[in-house]
Amino acid sequence: MSSSDSAILDDNTIVATDLPNDTEAAIKYIKSLLPVNVKDTLKYPPIVFINQIYDIIHNKTLINRELEILQKQCKIQKLTIGTCDFSSAFILYEDYVKYILNVYPDKPCITKFLNSILPSIKSFGVEKCVLKQKFKLQQYELTELINCGLLLIRNQESYWISFPSSGNFIKRYIEGRKYIIQIIKRRKFQEILESDLEARCAKVSKINELGFKYFLHDIKGSNDINKYNFWMPFENCLNKNILCNWNGLDL
Q1: What PANTHER family has UniProt attached to this entry (predicted)?
Q2: Residue 4, pLDDT score
Q3: What is the C-alpha to C-alpha distance for residues 59 and 174, in angstroms, rounded to an integer?
Protein backbone atom coordinates (compact mmCIF):
# COMPACT_ATOMS: atom_id res chain seq x y z
CA MET A 1 0.00 0.00 0.00
CA SER A 2 1.46 3.35 -1.00
CA SER A 3 1.58 6.31 1.37
CA SER A 4 -1.07 8.05 -0.73
CA ASP A 5 -3.49 5.20 -0.02
CA SER A 6 -3.10 5.27 3.76
CA ALA A 7 -3.25 7.57 6.76
CA ILE A 8 -1.59 7.34 10.19
CA LEU A 9 -3.77 8.19 13.18
CA ASP A 10 -2.60 9.61 16.50
CA ASP A 11 -2.28 6.08 17.92
CA ASN A 12 0.00 5.14 14.96
CA THR A 13 -2.67 2.94 13.40
CA ILE A 14 -2.38 2.76 9.60
CA VAL A 15 -5.69 2.77 7.75
CA ALA A 16 -6.65 2.57 4.08
CA THR A 17 -7.86 5.84 2.59
CA ASP A 18 -8.93 4.88 -0.92
CA LEU A 19 -12.37 3.61 0.15
CA PRO A 20 -15.14 5.68 1.79
CA ASN A 21 -15.76 4.77 5.42
CA ASP A 22 -19.19 4.45 7.04
CA THR A 23 -19.13 8.01 8.36
CA GLU A 24 -18.29 9.48 4.97
CA ALA A 25 -21.16 7.48 3.44
CA ALA A 26 -23.50 8.81 6.15
CA ILE A 27 -22.35 12.37 5.45
CA LYS A 28 -23.16 11.95 1.77
CA TYR A 29 -26.56 10.48 2.65
CA ILE A 30 -27.48 13.46 4.86
CA LYS A 31 -26.27 15.79 2.13
CA SER A 32 -28.61 14.05 -0.33
CA LEU A 33 -31.62 14.85 1.90
CA LEU A 34 -31.35 18.58 1.23
CA PRO A 35 -33.96 19.86 -1.25
CA VAL A 36 -32.91 19.99 -4.89
CA ASN A 37 -33.29 23.76 -5.08
CA VAL A 38 -30.86 24.21 -2.18
CA LYS A 39 -28.27 21.97 -3.82
CA ASP A 40 -28.69 23.39 -7.32
CA THR A 41 -28.71 27.07 -6.38
CA LEU A 42 -26.13 26.70 -3.59
CA LYS A 43 -28.39 28.84 -1.41
CA TYR A 44 -26.82 27.19 1.62
CA PRO A 45 -23.78 24.93 1.87
CA PRO A 46 -24.60 21.24 2.52
CA ILE A 47 -23.84 21.30 6.24
CA VAL A 48 -23.99 18.00 8.14
CA PHE A 49 -24.45 17.90 11.92
CA ILE A 50 -22.71 15.38 14.13
CA ASN A 51 -26.08 14.49 15.70
CA GLN A 52 -27.37 13.44 12.28
CA ILE A 53 -24.50 10.97 11.99
CA TYR A 54 -25.19 9.69 15.53
CA ASP A 55 -28.73 8.86 14.43
CA ILE A 56 -27.46 6.76 11.52
CA ILE A 57 -24.38 5.11 13.04
CA HIS A 58 -24.91 4.11 16.67
CA ASN A 59 -21.23 4.00 17.56
CA LYS A 60 -19.72 7.32 18.62
CA THR A 61 -16.24 5.87 18.99
CA LEU A 62 -16.30 4.67 15.39
CA ILE A 63 -17.68 7.99 14.17
CA ASN A 64 -15.00 10.03 15.96
CA ARG A 65 -12.28 7.74 14.67
CA GLU A 66 -13.49 7.95 11.09
CA LEU A 67 -13.94 11.73 11.30
CA GLU A 68 -10.31 11.91 12.36
CA ILE A 69 -9.36 9.97 9.24
CA LEU A 70 -11.45 12.22 7.00
CA GLN A 71 -9.94 15.31 8.59
CA LYS A 72 -6.39 14.04 8.06
CA GLN A 73 -7.29 13.42 4.42
CA CYS A 74 -8.68 16.98 4.11
CA LYS A 75 -12.03 15.53 3.03
CA ILE A 76 -14.07 17.46 5.60
CA GLN A 77 -14.06 20.92 7.14
CA LYS A 78 -15.23 21.05 10.74
CA LEU A 79 -17.50 23.91 11.79
CA THR A 80 -19.10 25.25 14.93
CA ILE A 81 -22.71 26.33 14.56
CA GLY A 82 -24.02 29.05 16.84
CA THR A 83 -22.08 30.00 19.95
CA CYS A 84 -20.86 26.56 21.06
CA ASP A 85 -17.11 26.25 21.51
CA PHE A 86 -16.79 22.83 19.90
CA SER A 87 -17.25 21.34 16.45
CA SER A 88 -20.93 20.45 16.08
CA ALA A 89 -21.05 20.21 12.29
CA PHE A 90 -18.93 19.73 9.21
CA ILE A 91 -19.02 19.85 5.45
CA LEU A 92 -17.22 17.94 2.73
CA TYR A 93 -14.20 20.06 1.86
CA GLU A 94 -14.95 20.04 -1.86
CA ASP A 95 -18.48 21.30 -1.14
CA TYR A 96 -17.13 24.03 1.10
CA VAL A 97 -14.75 25.27 -1.60
CA LYS A 98 -17.46 25.06 -4.27
CA TYR A 99 -19.89 27.09 -2.17
CA ILE A 100 -17.34 29.78 -1.27
CA LEU A 101 -16.11 30.21 -4.84
CA ASN A 102 -19.68 30.40 -6.09
CA VAL A 103 -20.26 33.37 -3.77
CA TYR A 104 -16.83 34.97 -4.23
CA PRO A 105 -15.31 33.77 -7.54
CA ASP A 106 -12.72 36.51 -8.01
CA LYS A 107 -11.12 37.31 -4.67
CA PRO A 108 -7.39 36.44 -4.49
CA CYS A 109 -7.43 36.55 -0.69
CA ILE A 110 -10.17 33.92 -0.53
CA THR A 111 -8.47 31.72 -3.12
CA LYS A 112 -5.26 31.89 -1.10
CA PHE A 113 -7.14 30.99 2.08
CA LEU A 114 -8.89 27.99 0.51
CA ASN A 115 -5.90 26.61 -1.38
CA SER A 116 -2.96 27.27 0.91
CA ILE A 117 -4.15 27.96 4.45
CA LEU A 118 -7.31 26.07 5.33
CA PRO A 119 -5.99 22.59 4.33
CA SER A 120 -3.14 23.11 6.81
CA ILE A 121 -5.37 24.20 9.70
CA LYS A 122 -7.56 21.07 9.82
CA SER A 123 -9.71 22.48 12.60
CA PHE A 124 -12.83 24.57 13.14
CA GLY A 125 -10.83 27.39 14.71
CA VAL A 126 -7.53 29.18 14.26
CA GLU A 127 -5.42 31.64 16.23
CA LYS A 128 -4.82 35.11 14.82
CA CYS A 129 -1.07 34.80 15.44
CA VAL A 130 -0.95 31.62 13.34
CA LEU A 131 -2.59 33.36 10.40
CA LYS A 132 -0.25 36.33 10.67
CA GLN A 133 3.04 34.63 11.51
CA LYS A 134 2.84 31.23 9.83
CA PHE A 135 0.69 32.11 6.83
CA LYS A 136 1.80 35.75 6.51
CA LEU A 137 -1.71 37.20 6.25
CA GLN A 138 -1.90 40.97 6.54
CA GLN A 139 -4.53 42.70 8.65
CA TYR A 140 -6.45 43.87 5.59
CA GLU A 141 -6.65 40.24 4.41
CA LEU A 142 -8.01 39.13 7.78
CA THR A 143 -10.57 41.92 7.60
CA GLU A 144 -11.62 40.79 4.13
CA LEU A 145 -12.01 37.18 5.25
CA ILE A 146 -14.15 38.35 8.19
CA ASN A 147 -16.30 40.59 6.00
CA CYS A 148 -16.81 37.76 3.51
CA GLY A 149 -17.90 35.39 6.26
CA LEU A 150 -15.03 32.88 6.14
CA LEU A 151 -13.75 33.88 9.56
CA LEU A 152 -15.98 34.50 12.57
CA ILE A 153 -14.48 36.37 15.52
CA ARG A 154 -14.26 34.07 18.53
CA ASN A 155 -12.32 36.48 20.74
CA GLN A 156 -9.55 39.04 20.33
CA GLU A 157 -6.97 36.39 19.54
CA SER A 158 -8.79 33.71 17.54
CA TYR A 159 -11.42 32.94 14.92
CA TRP A 160 -13.88 30.23 14.00
CA ILE A 161 -13.97 28.94 10.43
CA SER A 162 -17.33 29.91 8.95
CA PHE A 163 -19.12 30.50 5.65
CA PRO A 164 -21.06 33.33 3.97
CA SER A 165 -24.68 33.78 5.13
CA SER A 166 -24.08 31.49 8.11
CA GLY A 167 -26.51 33.61 10.14
CA ASN A 168 -29.37 32.91 7.72
CA PHE A 169 -28.62 29.20 7.71
CA ILE A 170 -28.48 29.00 11.52
CA LYS A 171 -31.76 30.91 11.78
CA ARG A 172 -33.54 28.49 9.41
CA TYR A 173 -32.00 25.51 11.19
CA ILE A 174 -33.10 26.66 14.66
CA GLU A 175 -36.61 27.63 13.50
CA GLY A 176 -37.25 24.31 11.75
CA ARG A 177 -35.90 22.26 14.60
CA LYS A 178 -37.97 24.14 17.18
CA TYR A 179 -41.14 23.82 15.09
CA ILE A 180 -40.92 20.02 14.94
CA ILE A 181 -40.19 19.63 18.65
CA GLN A 182 -43.07 21.95 19.59
CA ILE A 183 -45.54 19.86 17.56
CA ILE A 184 -44.62 16.81 19.61
CA LYS A 185 -44.62 18.66 22.94
CA ARG A 186 -48.15 19.92 22.35
CA ARG A 187 -49.53 16.41 21.91
CA LYS A 188 -51.43 14.99 24.88
CA PHE A 189 -48.96 12.16 25.41
CA GLN A 190 -46.10 13.92 23.63
CA GLU A 191 -45.93 11.35 20.87
CA ILE A 192 -46.93 11.20 17.22
CA LEU A 193 -46.62 8.86 14.28
CA GLU A 194 -43.69 9.78 12.10
CA SER A 195 -45.92 9.71 9.02
CA ASP A 196 -48.40 12.11 10.68
CA LEU A 197 -45.60 14.42 11.72
CA GLU A 198 -44.19 14.47 8.20
CA ALA A 199 -47.65 15.22 6.79
CA ARG A 200 -48.08 18.16 9.18
CA CYS A 201 -44.71 19.55 8.12
CA ALA A 202 -45.22 18.99 4.39
CA LYS A 203 -46.36 22.53 3.59
CA VAL A 204 -44.38 24.42 6.23
CA SER A 205 -41.79 26.61 4.53
CA LYS A 206 -39.40 26.66 7.49
CA ILE A 207 -39.23 22.85 7.27
CA ASN A 208 -39.17 22.53 3.49
CA GLU A 209 -36.24 24.90 3.17
CA LEU A 210 -33.88 22.21 4.50
CA GLY A 211 -36.16 19.16 4.42
CA PHE A 212 -38.11 17.17 7.01
CA LYS A 213 -35.74 14.18 7.06
CA TYR A 214 -32.76 16.52 7.47
CA PHE A 215 -34.27 17.95 10.66
CA LEU A 216 -35.55 14.61 11.93
CA HIS A 217 -32.13 12.92 11.86
CA ASP A 218 -30.66 15.84 13.80
CA ILE A 219 -33.38 15.87 16.45
CA LYS A 220 -33.27 12.10 16.96
CA GLY A 221 -29.48 12.02 17.05
CA SER A 222 -29.45 14.66 19.78
CA ASN A 223 -31.91 12.56 21.84
CA ASP A 224 -34.39 15.44 22.03
CA ILE A 225 -36.90 12.86 20.84
CA ASN A 226 -36.84 9.07 20.79
CA LYS A 227 -38.10 6.87 18.03
CA TYR A 228 -39.56 3.41 18.68
CA ASN A 229 -41.14 0.83 16.43
CA PHE A 230 -44.09 -1.28 17.45
CA TRP A 231 -46.56 -3.64 15.86
CA MET A 232 -50.33 -3.18 16.20
CA PRO A 233 -52.42 -6.33 15.50
CA PHE A 234 -55.88 -6.00 13.96
CA GLU A 235 -57.91 -9.15 14.42
CA ASN A 236 -60.76 -10.39 12.20
CA CYS A 237 -59.89 -7.97 9.44
CA LEU A 238 -60.64 -9.73 6.16
CA ASN A 239 -60.62 -12.91 8.30
CA LYS A 240 -56.87 -12.48 8.84
CA ASN A 241 -54.58 -11.11 11.54
CA ILE A 242 -52.78 -8.19 9.88
CA LEU A 243 -49.71 -6.60 11.47
CA CYS A 244 -49.04 -2.93 10.67
CA ASN A 245 -45.70 -1.31 11.39
CA TRP A 246 -46.12 2.05 13.15
CA ASN A 247 -43.15 4.33 13.76
CA GLY A 248 -43.78 6.49 16.81
CA LEU A 249 -41.90 9.47 18.16
CA ASP A 250 -41.87 9.87 21.93
CA LEU A 251 -40.46 13.00 23.57
Answers
A1: SERINE/THREONINE-PROTEIN KINASE 19 (PTHR15243), SERINE_THREONINE-PROTEIN KINASE 19 (PTHR15243:SF0)
A2: 46
A3: 26
